[in-house]
Amino acid sequence: xKPRSTARYVGFGFLLTVALLPLSAAAQTNTGFSxxxxxxxxxxxxxxxxTANSWNFFHVGDPVGLATVDGSPLNVFAWYGxxxxxxxxxxxxLPAGHYFVEAPGDRNQFAVVPADWSALSTVGWSGDPxxxxxxxxxxxxxxxxxxxxxxxxxxxQAGGSNSWDWTTTDQYVAAHYGSN
Length: 180
Description:
Helix content is 24%, strand content 28%. By secondary structure, the chain is an alpha+beta fold. It starts with 5 loop residues before the first helix and ends with a helix.
């Protein structure tokens, strides 16, 4: 199993907080989550998202496919702690919100955004896109207003001061230019 990146989850949590705060404020009280019932081991990866979207973001109306590696049951909780589902692998159709899922030894989270989700023109991501293969897909799915990536001269001019290779940078720009 690939080790989990702490930076990925910190960024994910910040983005969820900024992007979904209006949804949570309108739909529920923010009293803090205390619903976990299973033990947690950070070295365990038991929860699987089985639908095509692997970025843990879904639109209302999209199935959220959940399973476990070992076939054990799982629990899904809303942001404020209410149990939404408990049982075996399933596809859930959920309203907009932030959700937690747990299984023996593992926990994860995902968000369901409104079906008519519009661009987040003032929210973006800054960092190395190579650190997470799903970053560019996530940025496109969420319609982020900007994505800032490093342009490393040692890669752009790898062949010396008279060589220029903008291939990687051009791919990132082409993937997002005019998308919002």
